Amino acid sequence: MRLPRPHRHDLLIASIGLAGGLILWSFGIYVTGDDRIVGERWATLIPLVVMSATEALRRTAPRTALLVGTLAIAADQFTQGNLATVLMFTDVVYASVVYGTPASARRIPYTTGLVTVAITAALLIWWQNALALLVGVLSGMLSFLPALTGAIVRNHREAAEAATLRAEQTALLAEMDRAQAVVAERARMARELHDMVANHLSAIAIHSTAALSIDEEATTRQALTVIRENSVAGLAEMRRLIGLLRDSGGDAEPAAVPRLSGLEALIAQARTNGASSGLTFALDDTRAETAEQLPAPVELAAYRIVQESLTNALKHAPAGAVTVSLARDARALTVRVTSPFGDRPGPRAPGSGAGLVGMRERVQLLGGTFEAGPVPDGDDRKIWQVRAVLPAEERTPEA
Question: Which of 145, 166, 187 is the last residue of a domain?
């Protein structure tokens, strides 16, 4: 098996340990006396060199380093001993816990603890004096204490890494939430801008076309009057929207939100705008006068759906009747707008196709249902119907 390349820091530690051991050896400084099994001075160098080699593998191959280091420290006990060998062994035990596998990190502290207890008990039985306790304490300081220190350090590192990962995940989720909030706000602004201005601009386009195509002073004057009214109203709506977007301090008075009570005025304006196109408009409100007031988001959505439906009728419907119907029960408000459906040479004013998308989004955000399209109306005729069912209670918008 080919061992991995040692880390440069481990090579430095190994070099320092080897150099320190050689200095101690050159001055004749040993851990024990000359009464060991192998009393030759050179014998001390073998465990020293082997232990320094394991130091070079402490990070890249901690398990191999621990096994070889254990053999080296055992062999050192049969020589006069070198303090550098002992110190490097404690570092190898520490590194085997810090850089080893999770299983090794759990087992090594328990194993060294059991070995320490076993050595102490065996020496007590053998020597039967207090020196056995001292040797047991020393063996624990050389094996169990470094392993315990490594376990503590590893736990702290893993906790720090987990905290860092959680912080990164939290930051990522916050960024995703921010991006979704920006997209949702842009969609809301697009719906509001389209619904508020499209009606007025469509009327301007229709009546300007009439003024240009019909060379009659009365017709031109009437068309210019409608164009001016819609221009002023559209400009007011634009200013209101810009004011809402710029107001970030919260000191300004809240802008009035359109409600269903304003449908009469909306339909009256549609009558004026659609008179030249042969369109008539009617409101059929079957809600009870004593019915509980709807939440503002529900009324706003219903108002905007009616507004956009009337605008689409002005753009695309042939001459005929446009009817707005409102019905409510205990659970929902039903909005239904019907208009003539048939072939036309082309729309009276250009459209972007965003109106139906905006209406559907409004209904979905409130948890309602929406449908739009041609439906049968008897006598092989069809009408265009927009139908939305909105919950009578406000709901949390979907993510």
Answer: 166
Give the pLDDT score at 319.
Answer: 85
Q: Which residues are CB-neighbours of 393 under 8 A, at least 6 positions away?
A: 295
pTM for the predicted model, two decimal places? 0.54
Helix (H) or strand (E) holding 322: strand 320-328
Q: Which domain holds residue 197?
A: 171-391
User: Alpha-carbon distance 281 to 345, whole Å?
Assistant: 22
Give CA angle at 179 (178, 180), nearest 5°: 90
- State how many domains the chain has: 2
| Domain termination site, one of 98, 132, 166 | 166
* 3-class DSSP assignment, residue 147: helix
Cα(93)–Cα(62) distance, integer angstroms? 9
- Domain containing residue 304: CATH number: 3.30.565.10
In a domain, 20, yes or no: yes
**Can you list the residues of the chain whose pLDDT is less than 70?**
1-3, 33-39, 193-202, 205-207, 209-215, 219, 235, 240-257, 289-291, 343-353, 379, 394-399
